Amino acid sequence: MKTLLLAVFAALLMTSLASAQPITVQDVLQSQRALIEKSSRRTIGPAIDALVQSGLPQMQNVLEQWQAKNMWQRASDGHFYAATKNADGTYALLDLQDNTLVGNFASSDLKQLKPNSGVRAMIATALVQFQLSDPDVTKRSSALDSISRDPEVALLAPLRASIASETEPDILSRKTRLERLMTMAYDTDVPARVAAINAMAGDLGVDFRATLNPILSTKRIVTKAGTPPIANIAQELQIGSDALTRSDAYGLLVAAGDAPVEITHDARDAALENNVEGGRIAGISVGQLSTEAMRDKAYDGLVSAGKAPPRVTPSDIDASLAEYRFFEVFDEPSAAVTDAAQAALAKSETRVAISQAADLGLDALSLASIYFLAAIGLAITFGVMGVINMAHGEFIMMGAYTGYVVQLFITNHTASIIIAVPLAFVVTFAAGVALERLVVRWLFHRPLETLLATFGVSIALQQLAKNVFGTQARPLTAPAWLDGAWMINDVVSISYIRIAIFILALLFLGLFLFIMKRTRLGLETRAVTQNPKMAASMGINPDRVNMLTFGLGSGIAGIAGVAIGLFAKVTSEMGSDYIVQSFMTVVVGGVGNIWGTLAGAAMIGGFQKSVEWLNPSNTLAAQTYMILFIIIFIQFRPRGIIALKGRAAGD
């Protein structure tokens, strides 16, 4: 007997010691072996949950190996391992507990687990909980991306737990934001949800507004008059208002089973057709059913015979509607949450509207900079000299093609642009001087002949560009540091290229003012513009001044072409896209005044962007309205925004 008691005690002791041993990775895997072997998306969930809930730190590696299709099962005992392929074709099995080598085995002794895409997606979701605190910043970032794409209430707790130990500022900011968004959507604690909403009130992020929208989603319900609904009421709907028509209200009663279905004419006629017996319906000959009244009578006969539901009269509808009240209620049961969400969304929408206005202003400023760059050269040739140069757009095109040719030989885009800008000025300056010497100088004070002659030159230059470069658009690549955009917030942004063009426009404004106000050429140009004969009597050569002035305007157009070519297509017709706007800019601003050109560019750019904002799907309408606006504007202010004063204004 004593021996038996000792044996029992020993068995119990061994069992106790065995149960005290820690659970291993293999223990958990074997407990879920059947589900893992099957690897079906419909049944694998409990197995993945068991691995995650085991609390073993090695489970992150297990899930990663499984997801990467690198988990193998040994045929002899069904145990799971990671594996690497040897040079001789065998596989080295690695223990998933401590990554030690178990041994080398032939592929015939092993079975590779190949989870399908659905199972891998579920594994990826489970991995997020481990990756949120992974030492690798990339994995933590990927985990946040995964949660953002597919948020789940189960991920809220591990996300919160990972915030305290986060050391990377950007990742911490993302975690904090995501935790607040998930708290709004999934937390059961109402004060916590309200606090999260209030903390982000006025936020411009699309994700914030997208999180609030489900909270503020509503549905319509019907209650008996005098019985308020037990729900979070958004508003009571009045029958006959835009929010609830009489027909919609009765439809709600029908859907709730509180009123019979209204019999339409189509439903009535269908019932009549289904009850034709011997050429008669309810005792009425089919031939007599040519009027609505007779059809109603026949249908009423079917109702009396119990073959059709009764018709609902307008008075019946009114009586039914009078017995009920109609409400729009929130799907969210907590009024505190919906009140906070409404206030936060209203604040956000106000900030969005302000930001959209600022974004529109930046777009208008950017477009005005482009128009100013395109028109500043024309402000010299047309505004100062009075020459209508229809080939001005082709000088812009020549500058853009100059930049393209430079990039063919200089692959560094920054260096190529630095070289292309002065080279474009030289090329188009020479072309402008040639045009002035060969054509324009012989047609001074003959505007119609000048217009026709330069228009012919414009066509010739376009055809020459087609012969040399072809008809397809050519790339003019901006330097890498001009890629992307300056994101002021989630609504307002402007590309770095547009910023560069704006700065370039300011530089040219300063350069032009310096030339005209501080240099001998500028002094002589102003003298010739105001009184050519008096300037000639003072020793100034008007012919030479006109040549240099025309060349300067053409050279500036070439530089504008390089800038415009960085974001617009470089083709032989690109100049025609800007010639009309350039002339309008100069005319509206005030002929012969650089400040007027700047004001004209701002007005035209702002007006065009405003019209595009009101009608974003039709840019042609914006162009049309802009031309009409300019025609009307010139009727009231024919000399432009800033008109010349003095003797030059009367010439």
Defining traits:
about 650 residues, alpha+beta, about 10% strand, extended
Unreliable sequence segments: 1-19, 647-651
Strand share of the residues?
A: 5-15%
Using only CA atoms, what is the Rg? 40 Å
CATH architecture of the largest domain: Orthogonal Bundle
Tally of structural domains: 4
Mean pLDDT: 83
Structure summary, number of beta strands:
12
Distance between the termini: 135 Å
Total DSSP helices:
26
Give a description of the structure.
This protein has helices at residues 2-20, 25-31, 33-38, 45-53, 59-67, 117-131, 137-149, 156-163, 169-186, 190-199, 206-215, 246-255, 265-274, 292-304, 314-322, 335-384, 392-409, 413-438, 447-469, 496-518, 520-530, 532-537, 542-565, 576-589, 594-614, 619-636; strands at residues 71-74, 80-85, 91-94, 101-105, 110-112, 218-224, 233-237, 280-281, 284-285, 324-330, 485-487, 493-495. By secondary structure, the protein is α+β, with helices and mostly antiparallel strands. The strands form 4 sheets. It has a 5-stranded antiparallel β-sheet. The chain is extended. Mean pLDDT is 83; it is low at 1-19 and 647-651.
